[in-house]
Amino acid sequence: MVTLNDYLLASGLLFSLGFAGVLLRRNIIVIYMALELMLNASALALVGFSRFHVRDGLPDYNAQIFVFFIITVAAAEVAVGLAIIVALFRARQTTRVEDLTSLRF
Amino acid sequence: MAPIVFWIFVILMLGFGLSVIVSRNPVTSALSLVVSFIALAALYVSLGAFFIGVIQILVYAGAVMVLFLFIIMLLDLRVEIRKRMNLPAVSGGTIVIILFIKILFDVCYSFNGGHAEFPAVSVATHGDVWTIGTMIFRYYNLPLQIVGTLILVASIGVVILSKRELK
Q1: Which DSSP category does B162 fall into?
Q2: Residue A96 forms beta bridges with which residues?
Q3: Inter-axis angle of helices B26-46 and B3-22, nearest 10
Q4: Complex ipTM value
């Protein structure tokens, strides 16, 4: 029997993988992919809660619409983020975050 | 969905997710991310969210990943050279992640409501695409327009950022 907690556990583990990627990797593109993993993990938790909260014999579709908006905004965010990375690469010829320290105190 | 199938997809999703963050070649990371997202779409379908599963594959495994691969090829990124890790940063990050996973397990096993089986859903008269479409255009019309404007602004922003000289 698969319960809500199993889905929440899977979602949380995926989130911590993304978290680990953001904290430990140095390549800015891989950091960006890890951010996408975290975003998707939160969407999985939302869909799990949507299926768990049944009203009138139907799952709660409000959560699924929320996930729809999350995916839309994430697509826009990926486009802008990758454009920023390309502009950064053009200016500095690097994708390593250790080389981009001009804002460091 | 049978529990064995659920766990197979969870292991696929987490295994390829791990491969995203450990592989040194960015192309390997991007392709692992595709497999991870397809397994995630299978989990959405197992929850009865067919529409979300389909747009997950279309938007993420399709559009977003093509964009990632395109940028990786455009920047001509090589396999990263192995470098000595910054020890305080790595150990600090690992401790934070281990604490996070511990809290996660504590919460999941003390949340008693989540141990119950999923409540049954009745057979819907319409598919979930019909229901979601109706709800979006009836109750979420303003957010939909705002998201449309956001995408317009994002695409204009990408064009401006890609210009060679910023004025």
Answers
A1: T
A2: A27
A3: 160
A4: 0.90
- Which CATH number fits the domain that encloses residue B37? 1.20.120.1200
Supply the pLDDT for residue A58.
Answer: 84
Q: Is residue B116 part of a domain?
A: no
pLDDT at B88: 83
Res. A31: pLDDT tops 70: yes
Question: Domain total for chain A?
Answer: 1
How near does any CA of chain B get to the CA of A18, in Å?
A: 8
In a domain, A44, yes or no: yes
Q: Rounded to an integer, what distance in angstroms lies between the CA atom of residue A19 and that of residue B93?
A: 9
Question: B93 to chain A: which residues are within 8 Å by CB?
Answer: 20, 23-24
Looking at residues B77-96, what average pLDDT do you find? 79
Q: Which of A5, A13, A73 sits opposite B114 (nearest CB)?
A: A5
Residues of chain A contacting B132 with CB distance shorter than 8 Å? 61, 64-65, 68
Task: For residue range B136-159, list pLDDT tens digits in order.
Answer: 999 999 999 999 999 999 999 999
pLDDT of residue B166: 59
Q: How far apart are CA B99 and CA A10, in angstroms?
A: 17
In a domain, B127, yes or no: no
Question: What is the residue range of B30's domain?
Answer: 1-82
Q: State mean pLDDT over B128-140.
A: 91
A87 Cβ contact partners less than 8 Å away, ≥ 6 residues apart: B161, B162
Per DSSP, which regions of chain A are E strands? 54-55, 58-59
Domain that holds residue A61: 4-99
Beta bridge partners of A59: A54
Q: At A39, which CATH number?
A: 1.10.287.3510
Residue B25 falls inside a structural domain: yes
* Number of domains forming the structure of chain B: 1
